[in-house]
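Amino acids appear as letters; backbone shape is given numerically. Here is one record.
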Amino acid sequence: MSSTSPLPLLIDCDPGIDDALALLLAAGSPALDIRAVTCVAGNRPVEQTSLNARRVLDLAGADAVPVHAGCARPLTQAEPRSNLVHGADGLGGVALPLRGAVAAGHAIDVLVELLLAAAPGTLRLVALGPLTNLACAELRSPGLLRRAAQIDVMGGAAFCPGNVNPHAEFNFYADPLAAQIVLSAGAQLQLFGLDVTEQARMSDDWIASLAALPGPAAAAAQAMLRAYSGVDPLLHDVCPVAAVFAPELFDSAAHRVAVEWRDREREGRLLVDDAAAAAGDSAIARIVTRANTPALLDTVAQALRRLGA
């Protein structure tokens, strides 16, 4: 990748404070060219997550990036499995102005259209929320996800306990069948689960240091992170975005994986190796297990500084 040819990127997300920071990181990184942002129900209902994504991109000056709302509930549930970790508005009560509008067109249609229009292996796809939109796009157009250069997923807990219950991380728990469909689609996959995101820990001093950065994006990021850090001081969704242009910050290894979606008690559990093979429909994915946290935090701060320049 040359400095004059930013990598084309699709982001599927459910903002969420950590999603918001991931969007700011992407918008502030000259190595990336965000083609579209699609939203799903997750941290909050999809009507809220799509508006939040629009607000964050407007804050970053990325007004030209379209935001599309997608699936309002998981594949096998009547209602979304949302939470209030990020506050009722999903952004910790930090009011961001809404200058643009959520674009017409359902997220599923947009994902299908953009991936089919691009040459295979040219679009990178980052998924930061429940995988409902991606799974539906794959069901709509079988083989679609294999056209992505790579799919970087924030989800799962391979070698550590979950954060919803002992078995599951929130994104995979929110739509376990969708997660299994995506993992078994034959795409190039890299999973950023709790195994690595629990290392991406913010300190109070680092959050305070953002006050020295110029511009409204850094100020808003600091306010959101102060609201969030007391509950979950981890930058989950920053990790897969950073890995797109700074893969040296992470270590990973290939494993055979599947997601439990039939067993109600363990639904959303990421199954690895022998357990995955026994479950059937297993696939190969790279599981990320180490992050260079100081360099990652510095990367985020540099992106915020660029946005304020």
Observations:
- Residues 4 and 31 are 8 Å apart (CA to CA).
